[in-house]
Amino acid sequence: MIDRIRRLAADLFNLPAERISPSSSSADIKAWDSLQHLNLILAIEQEFQIQLEPEDPERMKTIYDVAKQVEYKLASRA
Amino acid sequence: MNVEYSLPNPRDEIERQIAVGRFAHAQTLLASYWQANPGLATAPFVLSQFKKLRAALGATKVRVAILRSFTVEPLVPLLRAAAAASRIDLQVYVGGFNTYAQEILDGSSGLYQFRPEIVMLAVQTRDLVPELWNDYSRLNATEVGDVVHRATELLRDLIGTFRARSQASLVAHTLELPMFPSQGVFDLQSGYGQLATIRELNECICACAREHNGVYALDYDALIARNGRRHWRDEQKWLAVRLPISANCLIHQVNEWMRFIQPLSGRICKALVMDLDNTLWGGVVGEEGIEGIALGSEYPGSAYLDFQRSILDLYHRGVILAVCSKNNEREAMDVLRHHPRMLLRPEHFGAIRINWKEKAHNLSEIAAELNVGADALAFVDDNLVECEKVRLALPEVYVIQLPSDPARYSLTLRGNPVFERLTLSTEDHNRNCYYATQRRRQELKNNTGSLEEFYRSLRQRVVFADVSSKTLSRVAQLTQKTNQFNLTTRRYREQDIVAMLARPEFRIITISVSDRFGDNGIVGVAITIDEGPACEIDTLLLSCRVIGRTIETALLAHLIQQARSRGLGLLKGWFLPTARNAPASDFYPSHGFFLSRKESQGSLWQFDLATSKHTFPEWIEIQEVKNTNYEHSYD
Known about the structure:
Chain A has 78 residues and is mostly helical. Chain A contains 3 helices and no strands.
């Protein structure tokens, strides 16, 4: 899961996948601003056909957080 | 969930094609990649590759502004990528949040500074008329009337002001209807229901579009309905970040915008070339015979019939039809002529190639016969291999690969932006008859001896008329679409033409041609500008249908005569070469013009009205129509 989110973020931020690690956050990726955060959420929603709450960036600070959130949503949907 | 692909990664393949300089092919792959994977995650890749291709491909640059009452930012990369897939290099300006009115009313706003060519006005019902959306049950009839009146005034004011300030095209969203009207099912029974009230405002938007040149209505409510109202809205994101559209539906909004952007940018297909077996009918006529093929009121024949219906709709929109199919000609023509349920008949087609040659070869011939570039052709086939071969050999051709279920065929054409037109002239309606009579003219040319004899036998009549309100859109359309016999290739919109009419030094003349085979309608435009003792030809163009029949010589004679009658001494004009207008390159020198200046973008030619001679071709009958509509006094 983490790898899929990493690839997705790399595509979105137009960066090589190696530049993005599970602990990457908006603090160390320049392109990851609030607009790209919204785009990341929308891209994930489209990819996994789930709904995330955008008003809660605190819970999705790092790539790892985002992946956990997606797993949680997928599990609660099943 | 994790799928590993053994096929070559399409991204690597695109980058490889760019690296070896096969740009047109790379662009075709890029467009297919976007079609298969449209989304926010793929848009940056598409845009970064297109950046390397756009110069080599001569991509069309277009400036689009979006005025909005909601968050549209995530739509922007999607829109730019969708445009890139259609070879349009889009620059996008997004107006301030909910400041659409200020942007339009303030002449120095960011909107006007951006100098847009196309403006989207995307305003939601709940933002424009919140009372009607939220509090409808609490309003009485008078209050509803007041709200409608105020909103109508505002819309008219905004659209009217914009039209007066800018030459750009304006695409205005209509207002969304609520999923459940506030009065429930009673809404339609009541005298002033919520739905009827919002529809009244939508009618006002459509009326504005009809009244103003270059203003168009986008049916936002129909867009939502097509994709499912329940799926469209994302109430959570609306409340959190003011984005009302769900992640899955963003692409549908973008594609709807493209249905306007493509025709407004001239990135459209003029002709649709089609396969026959398993495309126009089910089965293979060579094997099953005319009785065995599926075409009629029962499935799957009904699906093919519906597909033919959608093709016939394009025909009436002015799209030229042609056949390119591998069959025995006699058998296939037998179906076209005699099958009782066929809707498309031989007379609907401007060119027919039924043989066993490569389709790419036939498509090149069809483009030449119809006098259009290969990039003006769309090709539709059910066969994956044929589609792929055409993509490889002729990457300019827009290939439509049909889905496996024939019931889904017509959806590939209906709503496809390459077939959208924003104006429909009489010429569009009749275009295909022109091409059918053109085939007969060609036969005559082959049967007559000398050229002069051929010209005489055509019995051509030419009418020169000043532009009028009725011919305005045709004039703009010709400047937009004519590529080959076009001396300067300057593109004008209706509103540009209107602006010229206000200036006395401009003259805009339309040329209509008829002959013994039929009436071609308006096929040419000349725009001239008087300046001191000289008259400059700003635009001179002829539709490819009438090239090579000395119409251009007659037109020039007319311009010379007119300039002389205004007492001018010099007629001059630029030839600005493009990739497509070689047929017009020797027009000036072959008509007695002298080269006066040569620059990198083209050459300036001039004709001394006092001493040089030029006569009308004697085999053409000339008629002049002075128009009272839009006439100026030229004293």
